[in-house]
Every structure is written in structure tokens, then in C-alpha cells.
Amino acid sequence: ASKLREFGHKITIVNEKNCDLRNKAIKKSNPDIIHLHYEKYLDNLDVNPDIDIYLTSHYPYTDQYIKYANYFTNKKIYLLFSLFIKLIPKRLILFFRFNEVLLSLFIYYPIFKKIINFQHNKKLICLSDRILSTYKFYGCKNDLFLSHNFVNEKSIVYEKNNFEPYAICLGKIESRKNQSKLKNIPCLFFAGPIADKNFSENNFNYIGEWTREMLYKSLTKYSTLVLLSKGEAHALVICEALVAGLGLVISEEASSNLDKNKEFIDIISIKHLNNTSYIEKIIKKNIIKSSLLRDEIREYGLNKFSLKNFQFSYPPIVNKNR
After folding, report:
1. If you compute the radius of gyration of the chain from its CA atoms, what whole number of angstroms results?
2. For residue range 191-238, what is the model confidence (pLDDT) as tens digits?
3. What is the spatial distance between Cα 6 and Cα 47, in angstroms, rounded to a whole number?
């Protein structure tokens, strides 16, 4: 928002869960453009129909609608699985090891279809090429734009030499991110709120929850960031880690907007996500090589994700359509 204000835009941030209060605040600001970051509010917007509405979805599995296309483009298969999911409790479905990602895709699909069937004055700003391609694949005919996450490098501490040969897994601890499978790796530490019953706060390498200020100050004390998610739109923590000088060990699903041939970026394929010994070896190797490439990693992060590059991405989109 601060960057947009620098370019002369008047910005009003509305962060209100109550529908009536939210619409009241929007009307009071009398905007030319509304940028929505929570698609579930689409149906509850009561605004002038001539206002352009932009949406950025942060749903982590959007690009996987292509991978599982047969379940959604074949009406018979879709109806069969939809009925199955409606009749059987979610916990029981997961107990029988039904694909967790596919289950989420089925639950989210009605919202996904609403996004695809936007009206003429609604536009999509996508966080990655893969998400943009998914919308096209499913027939979205509205304007599609690409603008990934950026970070304010002035907020993130960078130290070239004062760091430890350890990796960190930073963020909410949940099944989607597979942290519980990695909890016994000695060189890997975890920070974030726990939402996975298979991970305990008493784990030897759990260091608690971090505030944003702690993240900005402490991230540079590590050598490598680990993020082995089953799905990501565009993880901001990856941008922050690069600017702080950390190498990456990430899943294929978390690798959007990155140059995968970089020496300090290791991609773990889906077939290895359950192979803890293999992952530990990759993490250890990444710690060693990334420790020697701190300046190069930071420079790459700045060139790709610095807030100073924001002006070439987001503002041209909204200015073009005013």
C-alpha cells in the first residue's frame, strides 16, 4: 500500500469480517478499483457494478486443477466424487488415506468455478504463471495478469558471516507443509504456530512462534530455508529467505517464480517427499553450498523480489485499466 501511495494512488485498506461493515467501509472510500485478496467475499460485495474488481487468490492448490483435470472436466467422475465427499465425513475420508490435496480441490471447486466465471468488470491478478495457465485451461475469459509477491528488503536484516550451519522451516506447522515428517532431522529447526497433532511443541528443534519483527531480524542467522509443501501459490517466506541470504530446499509445488537451475535452490520431487533420509542429505548439502554463496543468494533475491521492482509489476496493471 505504501508503494502505491508513492505513485499517487489513494489507498484504503478494509480488513473487516462483518459483511455489512465491510461494504459500508468500501462505499465510504468511493474507490475506482477494488482489489480483493479473499475470494469467499466475492458473493457479498455490494458495490457499484461499474467498479473494476481485481482478485488475487492465495489458495495453495489452484495450479493442481490441471494435474487432476480428469476429476473436474469429466462430469460423471466429478458428480460421483462430489457425492462421495458430501456423504462421508472429512475425517473418515482422510482416515482411509484419500488424497488430501484432491479432497481440498473438490471442496474449493465451487469457489474456483465462480472465479472462472467472473463478470466483465472483474480481473484476476495471479501470483504465478502456473496459476494463470490454470485459469486459462479452465476457460477463464476475463483479463488475467501476473504479479508475484515482493518484499521490503529494508526490513530484512542481512549478515554475510554471522550465521549458523542450520536450516529452518518457518511458518504454520500443518499437514500441507509436511513438517511432522521432518521433525527428527537434527540440522533443521522449526518456527511457527502448531496446527498438526503429529508435531509437538516439546520437539527438540522447535523454537516457538516468531513475530514479523523476529523473522526480519533472525532469518539471516540460518543457512537454508526448507519448505516442502504439497501446494503453494507463491510463498512470501521464500522471497524473504533469499533476501536474508538463505539457500532453498523446497518442493516442486513451492517453486513458482524461481530459477530452478540456481546452485543454491534444491527442488524435492513429489516421489521423495516421504523419504526423510534423502531429504536430510539434500538439506545438509544445501547448507554447505549456500553458506558460501550468501552474497549471490541475496543479490538474486533482490533482483527478483525487491519492493523496488514492484513499480514494474502491479501499478502498470491498474493504471492500464483505469
Report:
1. 21
2. 999 999 999 999 999 999 999 999 999 999 999 999 999 999 999 999
3. 26
Total Cβ atoms within 10 A of residue 79:
10
Q: Residue 241 and residue 180: Cα distance in Å, rounded?
A: 21
Structure-block grid coordinates of residue 234: 507463491
306 contacts 266 by C-beta, under 8 angstroms: no
- Helix, strand, coil shares of the chain, percent, nearest 5, are 45, 15, 40
228, burial (CB in 10 Å: exposed 0-12, middle 13-18, buried 19+)? buried
Q: What is the pLDDT of residues 125-177, one digit of tens each?
A: 999 999 999 999 999 988 899 999 999 999 999 999 999 999 999 999 999 99
Q: Give the burial class of 36: count Cβ atoms within 10 A of its Cβ; 0-12 exposed, 13-18 middle, 19 or more buried.
A: middle
DSSP structure string for 10-59: --------SHHHHHHHHHHH--SEEEES-GGGGGG----TTSEEEE----
DSSP H or E run through 267: strand 265-268
Judging by beta carbons within 10 Å of its beta carbon (0-12, 13-18, 19+), is residue 252 exposed, middle or buried?
Answer: middle
At residue 237, φ and ψ (nearest 5 deg) are -65, -25
